[in-house]
């Protein structure tokens, strides 16, 4: 119910999300992979010999995951839980009456490394009868400070630090809270069209 015609939102995006979470050294033995020369291009093999010959074991290259990675199944859920705790801390910063008012006006939506901070007007930061601009600014700054204090690397090129009501993007979906309209971005539409075209081609050409 926080999304309404007075809602404004900022967005934060992390660099290479998973690598922020480190695995304890005791787990490294069980979190790794190996690959043989024949599974790699010749130039890749030459590169590995030049930069990490110590990774060679018998006839294979052996690597371990020191940080969360796409190749380990718990990475997504674990990192999501860490990010949820961080956003909860930003939402509840402060004390007393202010926190109660924020609980009515502030929301943070996240998926892995993509965080959207939304605030509606009339309840916080002096926006009485106005938009949620200043509330969204404060929440966005709280989130930014919290993530940086935890050692996260924010991708400022992708992040949207200035609150918006129109053209706010989250997970490829655009939000226009002035007109209460949600829409796919052109980039996402193009990707869907390419995917549909590939599926049709596969069906037409058979196995």
Concise synopsis of the structure shown:
The protein is of the alpha+beta class and 207 residues long. It is 36% helix and 22% strand.
Keywords:
207 residues; alpha+beta; 4-stranded antiparallel β-sheet; 3-stranded antiparallel β-sheet
What this model shows, in words?
The protein is an alpha+beta fold. 36% of the residues lie in helices and 22% in strands. Helix 2 (75-91) crosses helix 4 (133-149). The longest helix has 20 residues, at 186-205. It is flat, with a radius of gyration of 22 Å. The model is unreliable at 124-129 (pLDDT under 50).
Following the backbone from N to C, one meets helices and strands in this order, namely EEHEEHHEEHEEEEH
Largest sheet: 4 strands, antiparallel
Distance between the termini: 48 Å
Low-confidence stretches: 124-129
Specify Rg, calculated over alpha carbons.
22 Å
**Topology, number of strands:** 10
Global geometry? flat
Largest sheet, spatial ordering of strands: 5-6-1-7
